[in-house]
UniProtKB/TrEMBL annotation:
InterPro entries from the UniProt entry: AB_hydrolase_1 (IPR000073), AB_hydrolase_fold (IPR029058), Pept_S33_TAP-like_C (IPR013595), Serine_prot/Carboxylest_S33 (IPR051601)
Signal among keywords: yes
Domain of life, source organism: Bacteria
Keywords tagged on the record: Hydrolase, Signal
Domain Peptidase S33 tripeptidyl aminopeptidase-like C-terminal: residue ranges: 395-485
Protein's name according to its UniProt entry: Alpha/beta fold hydrolase
Residues covered by the AB hydrolase-1 domain: 82-260
Signal peptide: 1-20
Stated family: Belongs to the peptidase S33 family.
GO molecular function: hydrolase activity
Taxonomic lineage from the root: Bacteria, Bacillati, Actinomycetota, Actinomycetes, Propionibacteriales
Organism (species): Kribbella antibiotica
Length: 485
């Protein structure tokens, strides 16, 4: 279940001050201790791990340093070059990215694969706002009182981040992460790097292309983010697509009514969904030791409806079946729902949510008046009844203590890339691909027709798309025009 002004540097310059060449990376085994399962998996795969010191503030290259953590899985065959991987987020760790999609084993025949945790993420120098639960995003609910509660939650996130990490917040943004990537390129001794980024990673890759033209070889951007709207309100416009995906799931579930008992028609399944929503407007659902109310319920639906393959729809149906049963009284969760609630409603997600928040708030400002969000939600309640309170809700960025230090990156280049997009992606709309292509004029778009999935390459079992991406990575030849699988 997978999200977040004084100077604009739109050309090749990486900062206002030249940065000295970074030190070499010292490679070592990945496991930190006997309990480090991630490190052990990397070691078992033959990977190495390493760290690189980079400037906290690129305008003071000789000032304080932070650490970037990375893994390297060397090419097993005839090596083409180095492929840097990013899983998205913002705030998503990528140290183990090479192990998370089986198809990358094929890619790894020709590439050294670098799983890089961005600044302040994962094993890199971290940020942790000590959040009691995964508080952003959080839905606004149906009433002014529930909306006010969501405002309080987001203001508290900003307050905690100010207290725990206020001295570094101004240095957490995508442009600095792109600068970090170039320091990694230099430290690896590469004239050019290749890049594979998913979701937010498409924005990071696009920013790198703009800031460092000519320093990439082959670039794949999967699940394209709209570079003109990326920031704290990144998901504001995806409510309608998620409503459509919910109805498509309801149609599938109606055909499996004997298993899930949510209704034998699309209308009946949607009525079961609406019953759950009406219930939490007045009373929380008791699921195991957790309570699920208006703030959390849309997140459960959002997280569940991200894959239109049968297995994904079955997982969603099982979760929503439990939610429907909880309307009639307390229920015990299955492993999937229980694990999700355990993570979201406990401090376990504090670090990734802290990083996600800091990056989004560091990249673009958000309206500071809560009334802006309330009016937006109210205007779209009828058309986005299940997701609008989440996608249009307020974020901690409304209360962020520092302003972005640079203007958002404006894309205007002729770099080359392959943009991969699902036709009905519920997270990053398909139309984003065209917007991204307008800024990266040498890019081509590969659309997977009918796909209601965020993340395609190596994730969606589409042989056509997988073959075309691998072919591009191996040959370096982009298609002459946009293509559809």
């Amino acid at each position: 279940m997978k999200l977040l002004l004084a100077l604009a540097l739109l050309g090749a310059s990486t900062s206002t001050t030249a940065v000295a060449a970074p030190a070499a990376i010292s490679w070592h085994q990945c496991a930190l201790n006997a309990a480090d399962e991630e490190g052990k998996a990397l070691d078992d795969a033959g990977a190495q791990c390493g760290e690189l010191q980079v400037p906290l503030d690129y305008t003071r290259p000789n000032g304080p340093k932070i650490t970037l953590a990375m893994s390297r899985l060397k090419a097993t065959g005839n090596r083409i070059g180095t492929l840097v991987l990013n899983n998205g987020g913002p705030g998503g760790p990528s140290l183990s990215a090479a192990l998370e999609r089986p198809i990358l084993k094929t890619v790894g025949e020709r590439y050294d694969q670098i799983g890089l945790d961005p600044r302040f993420v994962g094993r890199s120098t971290p940020i942790d706002c000590k959040l009691p639960f995964a508080a952003w995003p959080w839905a606004a609910g149906t009433t002014r009182a529930s909306f006010a509660r969501s405002v309080e939650i987001q203001a508290d996130v900003a307050k905690r981040c100010t207290a725990e990490a206020g001295s570094v917040l101004q240095y957490i943004n995508t442009r600095n992460t792109a600068r970090d990537m170039d320091q990694v390129r230099i430290a690896l001794g590469e004239q050019k790097i290749s890049y594979l980024g998913y979701s937010y990673g498409t924005y990071l890759g696009a920013v790198y292309l703009q800031m460092f033209p000519g320093r990439t070889d082959r670039v794949v951007l999967d699940g394209p983010v709209n570079p003109t709207t990326y920031g704290p309100r990144l998901i504001r416009h995806v409510g309608p697509q998620n409503e459509d995906n919910l109805r498509a799931w309801a149609t599938w579930t109606a055909a499996h009514n004997s298993t899930y008992g949510l209704g034998s028609t699309t209308r009946q399944v949607m009525a079961s969904v609406d019953l759950i929503y009406r219930h939490v407007a007045t009373k929380d659902l008791q699921i195991g030791t957790h309570k699920v109310g208006e703030g959390l319920l849309p997140i459960l639906f959002w997280a569940s409806l991200n894959d239109d393959r049968d297995a994904g729809r079955a997982d969603a149906a099982a979760i929503i079946q439990l939610l429907r049963k909880a309307v009639d009284g307390p229920v015990e969760p299955d492993e999937n729902l229980g694990g999700f609630l355990d993570a979201v409603l406990a401090p376990a997600m504090s670090q990734p949510i802290s990083a996600q928040t800091a990056i989004a708030c560091g990249d673009r400002t958000a309206p500071s008046d809560p009334k802006v969000y309330w009016r937006d939600i109210q205007a779209h309640r009828a058309s986005e009844p299940h997701f609008g309170t989440l996608t249009r809700g307020i974020s901690p960025c409304a209360f962020w203590p520092v302003q972005p230090q640079e203007a958002p990156t404006k894309l205007a280049n002729s770099e080359r890339a392959l943009i991969v997009a699902g036709e009905y992606d519920p997270r990053t709309l398909h139309e984003n691909a065209a917007v991204l292509q307008q800024g990266i004029r040498g890019a081509r778009v590969l659309t997977v027709a009918g796909a209601r999935k965020h993340g395609i390459f190596g994730e969606y079992d589409n042989a056509c798309a997988n073959q075309k991406v691998v072919s591009y990575l191996f040959s370096g030849n982009l298609p002459a025009g946009d293509q559809t699988c």
